[in-house]
């Protein structure tokens, strides 16, 4: 029984460790600037982009106060203000 366990442990361990680099590559650094030409006032931001954004305090980052139902997030080195439907109100490059 122990021989079978030892025989199976190495392949299982190798397979589980192979997935770690793939997970690490999926992580985004929201503070590094990436230009998005599609992010313009009136456009709708992709749900995936919005969800990976970090919520920001508008006072701390010297941004305008969002109206009710709007929120600032930092995504790819940019502050993006959107309404509840994902419509872009403003985009500012972070410093």
Largest sheet: 4 strands, antiparallel
Characterize the overall form.
Answer: elongated
CATH superfamily of one domain: inner membrane protein cigr
Range of strand content: 15-25%
State the order of secondary-structure elements, H for helix, E for strand. HHEEEE
Strand order of the largest sheet: 1-2-3-4
Which CATH class of one domain applies here? Alpha Beta
Number of strands: 4
Radius of gyration: 21 Å
Helix content: 25-40%
End-to-end separation:
61 Å
Overall pLDDT = 84
In CATH, the architecture of one domain is Roll
Which topology of one domain does CATH recognise? Nuclear Transport Factor 2, Chain: A
Descriptive keywords:
alpha+beta; single chain; 4-stranded antiparallel β-sheet; 95 residues; Nuclear Transport Factor 2, Chain: A; 32% helix
Walk me through the structure:
The protein has 95 residues and is of the alpha+beta class. It has a domain at 28-93: inner membrane protein cigr (Nuclear Transport Factor 2, Chain: A). Helix content is 32%, strand content 21%. The protein is built from two helices and four strands, in the order ααββββ. Strands 1-2-3-4 form a four-stranded antiparallel β-sheet. The chain is elongated. The termini are far apart. The model has no long low-confidence stretch (mean pLDDT 84).
